[in-house]
Amino acid sequence: MKKYRLFSSESVTEGHPDKVCDLIADRVLDAALEGDPKSRVAVEVCASTGFVMIFGEMTTKSDIDIEGIARDTLRYIGYTAESGIDPDACEIVVRMDRQSPDISMGVTRSLEARYGDGEDVGNKLGAGDQGMMFGYADSETEELMPLPISLAHRLSRRLTEVRKSGLLGYLRPDGKVQVTVAYDGAVPHHIDTVVISSQHDETVGLETIQDDLKREVAEHVIDKSLLTADTKYLINPSGRFVLGGPAGDSGVTGRKIIVDTYGGMIPHGGGAFSGKDPTKVDRSASYYARYVCKNMVAAGAADKLELQVAYAIGRAHPVSVCVNSFGTGKKSDEELLGIIEKVFDFRPHSIIHELGLSSPIYSASTNYGHFGKNGLPWEKTDKAAEIKKYLA
């Protein structure tokens, strides 16, 4: 029997406790940026039974009803007193302070601007923290994302669609999925296992849930060519999932960093995204690294491309940029890096300006992956034509 390499990725719905917290944080961020594009925001959220706490640092001219945003977000997701948390009656605690003046100093005027070339507008901002960020793109899917995470996000989004549309009205907001893809060498061959766990009304039976989710979620999303007679379906394998949301498990911002990125296909620098304004390079530089990789793959520079970029707090230029094409590049990795350095500018001010990251766009990125979705500025491939000139 032929041996395949198995690789799994997971995704979660917007009602998952951690994602509840992420969405509240990003909606607070958007509200700040809407009134003040120069807002400095680092919002954290935690949630438990009947309780939400919003805390962190914020310097903004915007007048924001943070508690109101949190309650509206819980309603948008679909939570009620019976399903996980009551948007109207839950306790909400807000503890926000201003951004540290020490951090603000290094961000507002970079090391280069203070001691070197202050005339170059690209040197205006320093990185909001140190750290290393990764970007990635490959040709496995139309959106240039790895197939396991792409399918996982499509399944979790579908799980929410059938709930909100009323098609499977007994479902509740909390849920998660996992997809295992069998690879023949570097090429996806078939789906080995699909795992779906969805919160549900206590009156519905397990057999009904399993039949409905296989038909309306798994088979609706996954191309038949990827399914085999041996594909395994594990649907609500615990047997019961009635208690969910913050009542079933606590939630915290930034705890789904692999779900948010590439499903574990490449390394992760460790930084989370939600609740952070774009001066925080663990968010903006990760978006830019994806933008670079997607344009390079779209241009035909490589079939797979991984990029690492690292920063020092207060410094505009990255301390390192590293490329790995996994042997699929049209040119050597050194030559590909040379092309990237000609086409792209990794300084925070340039990233924010080029991708329009001072706009209130972040709550659109929170759920079902920050990468691979249409409409997000880091997903455009407007640099591909320029890159092709260097490949000729």
Give the tags:
392 residues; 12 helices; alpha+beta; four-stranded mixed sheet; 11 strands; 33% helix
Question: Can you write the helix and strand succession as a string?
Answer: EHEEHEHHEHEEHEHEHHEEHHH
Q: Tally the helices: what do you get? A: 12
Estimated share of beta-strand residues = 15-25%
| Spatial extent as radius of gyration | 22 Å
Quote the average pLDDT.
95
Supply the helix-strand structural class: alpha+beta
Number of strands: 11
Termini gap? 43 Å
What does the overall shape look like? flat
Main sheet summary:
4 strands, mixed
- Report the helical percentage: 25-40%
The strand line-up of the biggest sheet is 1-6-7-8
Low-confidence stretches: none
Give a concise summary.
The protein is α+β, with helices and mostly antiparallel strands.
Write up what this structure looks like.
The protein is of the alpha+beta class. Helix content is 33%, strand content 22%. It is built from 12 helices and 11 strands. The chain has helices at 17-35, 66-77, 101-108, 111-115, 147-164, 206-221, 245-248, 257-260, 281-298, 333-343, 348-355, 384-391, and strands spanning 5-12, 40-48, 51-59, 91-97, 131-138, 171-184, 187-200, 232-235, 251-252, 304-311, 320-324. A 4-stranded mixed β-sheet has the order 1-6-7-8. A 4-stranded mixed β-sheet has the order 4-3-2-9. It has a 3-stranded antiparallel β-sheet with strand order 5-10-11. The mean pLDDT is 95.
